[in-house]
Design brief:
The complex is a heterodimer of chains A (229) and B (202). With 229 residues, chain A is an all-alpha fold. Helices cover 71% and strands 0% of the residues of chain A. Chain A is elongated. Chain B has two domains: 88 residues, Orthogonal Bundle (Rna Polymerase Sigma Factor, Chain: A); 90 residues, Arc Repressor Mutant, subunit A. The chains are: A mainly alpha (229), B mainly alpha (202). Chain A: Keywords: Membrane, Transmembrane, Transmembrane helix. Chain A: This is DUF1109 domain-containing protein.
Chain lengths: 229, 202
């Protein structure tokens, strides 16, 4: 049986194998993943801020002046907090102890609950014509439009997380939080963009972005659990 | 062999700056003990070598996170411990279920050996006893007993206060004595006093 401490020759062979891995060509994605945690965090935050900027400058909701400001700010703060917390855990550096499962579950729960709570609130107002549509026969087409819009932004955020997270989202915690954090970001973008205030539209068109990504996270976790054998 | 007398931190800083030889020296200094520590948790030299190799690969990938003033050893050990936990999770089993080569009939062919700094962590009774400890206690005991770190160093590595580490070690060693029994402890002239929680004087 091999001794616990290898012989110098064995150590040398180990280092040569390591060197061979280090000398392999580094592609764009691996180059990004080898940047410092500060640089990776700034890049991911930059992607999120770019989305918010695009919406705020060109695609912002038309009822902003009529929407109660404290509620709007509270909604944005809750969703932004969930997005930031998820992003911080996703990009947590490898030299820091892993967070316990409880912390990961707490952040995941916040990323799911924040959009659900925001969507369940009563209509903020009914003072703008664009805010009272999207119900009845108009529910499905409007909800589908919002769902596609929000999901597009969310998947862009997942792609950015994939490029910046060092395991390429192969680890369960980062993968789940990238999906759920992206869902919260998709909802944040929709809050800035969509003037429809009916809770049924919010659930059908906005919260479903998070729900679909939650299902994707559950499937990913189950698949990996099965894969463990 | 020419040895490099620079500190770990100076070597890491040099490596970040492009001195590829610095990593070889860091590997030479830390890999043997880290393999021993990981083997104490994983129960297998091959798995421990895989984890240590991956730890150095991760050290390389995260090199730009290293800041002047940081200490390298806690960095490296935290990376290795994270990988070791992933390894357990991937395997979906605890270390007591890991098997070591056994003789015909499934009996362990390794000679028993007394606990102590030179203990054979492959001896089945030690493996089984260690595996029954809570992870926090096992971590402290492997670092202190098998790897020979002082309690101050262990505290630094696990990110806990020295008093908390001593309490964990005290409880862990007490439990180990119960699990291993007096017969085992008498082998090789060791007695229960050989497994104390006194900080090494060195």
């Amino acid at each position: 049986m091999a001794e616990p401490t290898p012989e110098p020759a064995e150590l040398g062979a180990m280092f040569e194998a390591l060197e061979a891995q280090l000398e392999a060509p580094v592609g764009l994605a691996e180059g990004l993943r080898q940047r410092s945690t500060w640089a990776r965090s700034a890049a991911l935050l930059g992607v999120a801020l770019a989305m918010v900027t695009v919406i705020s400058l060109g695609l912002r909701r038309v009822d902003l002046a009529l929407h109660p400001l404290p509620r709007l700010l509270g909604t944005l703060a809750a969703l932004a907090a969930a997005v930031l917390a998820a992003g911080l855990v996703v990009l947590r550096p490898v030299h820091r102890r892993r967070l316990s499962g409880w912390w990961v579950a707490l952040v995941a729960g916040a990323a799911v609950l924040a959009p659900a709570i925001v969507s369940s609130l009563p209509a903020a107002h009914a003072d703008h014509p664009a805010s009272v549509i999207g119900v009845g026969a108009d529910l499905v087409p409007r909800a589908l439009g919002c769902f596609a819009f929000g999901l597009g932004f969310a998947l862009t955020a997942v792609a950015a997380a994939y490029l910046l997270e060092r395991s390429a989202l192969r680890r369960r915690g980062p993968a789940v939080l990238a999906l759920l954090g992206a869902g919260a970001l998709g909802n944040l973008v929709l809050v800035l963009h969509c003037p429809i205030v009916a809770p049924i539209h919010q659930w059908a068109g906005h919260a479903t972005v998070s729900l679909v990504l939650l299902v994707a996270a559950v499937v990913a976790v189950s698949w990996r659990s099965l894969g463990r054998g | 062999m020419v040895t490099d007398d620079r500190s770990d931190e100076a070597l890491m800083t040099a490596y970040v700056g492009g001195d590829a030889r610095a990593l070889r020296e860091l590997f030479r200094r830390h890999a043997p003990r880290l393999i021993r520590v990981m083997a104490g948790h994983l129960g297998s030299t091959a798995d421990a070598q895989d984890v240590v190799q991956a730890a150095f690969l991760n050290l390389h990938r995260a090199r730009r996170d290293f800041r002047a003033g940081s200490r390298l050893q806690p960095w490296l050990y935290t990376i290795a411990y994270n990988l070791m936990r992933d390894h357990h999770r991937y395997r979906g089993r605890r270390p007591e279920l890991l098997t070591e080569p056994t003789g015909p009939g499934g009996h362990d062919t390794r000679p028993s050996q007394a606990p102590g700094p030179d203990a054979d962590l492959y001896a089945a009774p030690i493996r089984r006893a260690l595996a029954q400890l809570p992870e926090a206690q096992r971590e402290v005991i492997v670092l202190h007993w098998f790897a020979g770190f002082s309690f101050a160093e262990v505290a630094d590595l696990v990110g806990a206060r020295r008093t908390a580490v001593k309490v964990r070690a005290h409880r862990g060693y007490k439990r180990l004595r119960e699990l291993l029994g007096p017969e085992y402890l008498e082998l090789g002239g060791a007695d229960s006093e050989a497994v104390t929680v006194q900080e090494p004087k060195a």
